[in-house]
Write a structure and sequence with these properties.
Elements: E1 2-10, H1 15-25, E2 30-37, E3 43-51, H2 54-66, E4 70-75, E5 81-92, H3 98-107, E6 111-115, E7 119-126, H4 128-138, E8 143-148, E9 152-155
Antiparallel strand pairs: 1-3, 1-4, 2-3, 5-7, 5-8, 5-9, 6-7
């Protein structure tokens, strides 16, 4: 099962290594890792995406909470949340295929950010599944290169009943 963890940490040397070490020590792979500063000085937010069973992820979360530099850990499995990734993708764009590629780009609300004689560079933002769907559809045209940010996530705002 795909899991997204949000880890608020003190921004100091070695924190990333200790967090990654908890995963590798259990033989657990990190699919994506995104780290950036928060509004609070000296604090960063790590978003880690991984796959694994309930028991191992639960154990990793418990161990993360014991790391001195870790301020807070949230497993989004238990919370309604919004998550997004960003991807840049170079796609072969022969003249006869350009219209079809542009229709797919439009349907998925992507942007063409660079054009050359024989390729498009496309920017796509969305959920992991949406980006996988775009890749699947554009694969038949020939994808030359992909760069992805990894997941960023945030709890949803409280919804009020009327």
């Amino acid at each position: 099962m795909r899991r997204v963890l949000s880890i608020l940490v003190e921004n100091e040397p070695g924190v990333l290594s200790r967090v990654a070490g908890l995963f590798s020590g259990r033989g657990f792979n990190i699919e994506s890792l995104n780290v950036a500063p928060t509004l609070e000085e000296g604090v960063s937010l790590m978003t880690v995406t991984t796959y694994g069973d309930e028991q191992i992820v639960e154990q990793i979360v418990k161990q993360l909470r014991k790391v001195v530099s870790v301020i807070k850990v949230v497993d989004f499995k238990d919370h309604s949340h919004v998550d997004r990734e960003m991807m840049l993708m170079k796609v072969n764009a022969e003249e006869t295929k350009r219209e079809e590629i542009l229709r797919i780009v439009d349907i998925f609300r992507c942007k063409v950010v660079d054009v050359s004689v024989n390729e498009f560079t496309i920017e796509a933002t969305g959920t992991h599944d949406k980006l996988q769907a775009i890749v699947s559809l554009l694969m038949r045209f020939g994808i030359k290169e992909i760069a992805r940010t990894g997941t960023v996530a945030m709890k949803r705002a409280m919804q009020f009943e009327q």
